[in-house]
Specification:
By secondary structure, the protein is of the alpha/beta class. 23% of the residues lie in helices and 29% in strands.
Amino acid sequence: MSNILKSSVSRRTLLGGMAATGFVAAMHPYSLLAKENTAHLRLMETTDLHVHVLPYDYYGDRPVDTAGLARTASLIRGIRDEATNSVLVDNGDFLQGNPMGDFIAYERGLKEGDIHPVLKGMNVLGYDAGTLGNHEFNYGLDFLTKALAGANFPIVCANVAHGALASNPRDDKLMLKPYVIVEKTVMDGAGTSHPIKIGFIGFVPPQIMNWDRRHLDGKVNARDIVSSAKAFVPEMREQGCDIVVALSHSGIDGGSYTDGMENASLHLAAVDGIDAVFTGHHHLVFPGPAYEGIPEVDSEKGTLFGKPAAMGGFWGSHLGVIDLMLEREGAGWRVANFTTEARSIYKKDGRKKIPLTESQQDVIDSVKEEHEATLAYVRRAVGKTSAPLHSYFALVADDPSVQIVSKSQLWYVGEMLKGTEWEGLPILSAAAPFKAGGRGGPDYYTDVPVGDVAIKNVADLYLYPNTARAVAITGATVKEWLERSAGIFQQIEPGKPDQMLLDPQFPSYNFDIIDGVTYQIDLSQPSKYGPKGELINPDASRIVDLQFNGAPIDPEAKFVVATNNYRAGGGGNFPGVDDSVVILVAPDTNRDVLVRYIVQEGTINPSADANWTFKAMPGTSVLFDTGPGGKEHAASVEGVAIEPAGDGADGFARYRITL
């Protein structure tokens, strides 16, 4: 094991729960208050681990204090000591998400009998059940099947079936068991042991059929989450479940229920027979302020339609916890009361994030070999860069980290379309910044200095194992694509100083820059599209002076746009962009395309060409926050003048742009 990791995560070996969390465990009030025929049951959840077994940032090649199942393990063991009875579950997205996952999938592979490293770490901790997330499908069904064989706990999913869907969900030929009934023994407050049947049912967003169509089309189909629950939860009750827990790899959406919705956890909670819901997918924390103001959501108490729910962050940052006070009811049990929380592995102190847990040595040891192999994998050089590759200003100006992705896509799609009916059409390229702060924090940026470019840098530039695709659209749709992207900006009042520029709720991965055209963004206009791509201001037009080859773009002209499977399949709800306009489904990931491009070029020049800027607004200035590491790059940003404006919140640095 590398010394840098060992010094950070194993200052002491901690196997006992009380020692693991650094404090003497205090029993939960339910365990203290339980009497004869009442029992305290603690439910614990990890979610969106994304292969973060160790507290290590492979992109930055450094240890971290804010992630890693090895650190979460201390919480798990400590929290177990606070309860008389407990169970542990995982809520999906564990197989993909960092270079260790890519190394196993693309380099080493999984042979019969091999155990995936994330499952090695999970197996140490004694999980009772788990479900799939959408990213479990990124590497294909064969890989997924081999990986799941290494879990020593049941993994369930009620809404993905082989072949066509049946008229009744119970007749679907499901890929996995829809649910599992775990028979446990609970001790009541009088010290008497009783049997209990806890049912766990799992769900994944049906959008996997768009996001991973190349792996899934013609092989499996996904059903609506809520309709699947309504079919199987009564069956679970018929089979004697005392408690039913939904493992919902789906976020919390406050809108009205619609068939096939991606973030259905709120409406799932309303299904009769479900006692508690673990949610995820959003990479947020619940209970917490992220979901304040949504009808039927109590973000302080932690309920969805009055039922207890929790979401445990991402990468092991938090543990979702639901505490149930159970009462005997005949020969079974019912929920008499509950509390919920999401407990963190660190705390914030200004810009600092202070760890609250130590890593568990047995979890570290379980993936020692894979960790060392991943380090060698990510440190492998593939070329050089003649200019810094960074994303500190990717949301306010044309950016080198996005530019190089666009260049690689243009090159690749041009090669792939040779000899086809599409050869000769002008090719544009759409790319978005993935590491641009936001929920990832002030260090969540790409920052590659001049010199060698290693695989770890390529993975840093393109976080997801998306596959390359191309669409054929009109000039009018190009404009609408950019209008949707421009929703990341707040509307700015002319003549007013220091207005906040960025909408914090708009994810950076939906801020596409299209290379091959030039344009300006008029911030005085309202956004034409809402955060989810809905049309909210039909007459608004933020994109102005849109040109191709130095002339106004022809709305009727045809263009090929290089992009990825997520966007081409409708991800982000971009107007006019879906499967119907796809002309190329490529076999290669965008990361592989980027690696090939760098290898071919030898030395890349990622300098931004400032093909987009903000329209001038005299007497107006805006503020935005970025990582403090952007200080050395601010003066070199093309197309806009940036000046420091003090400190932002939570460790970010603030800058000003005069429009």
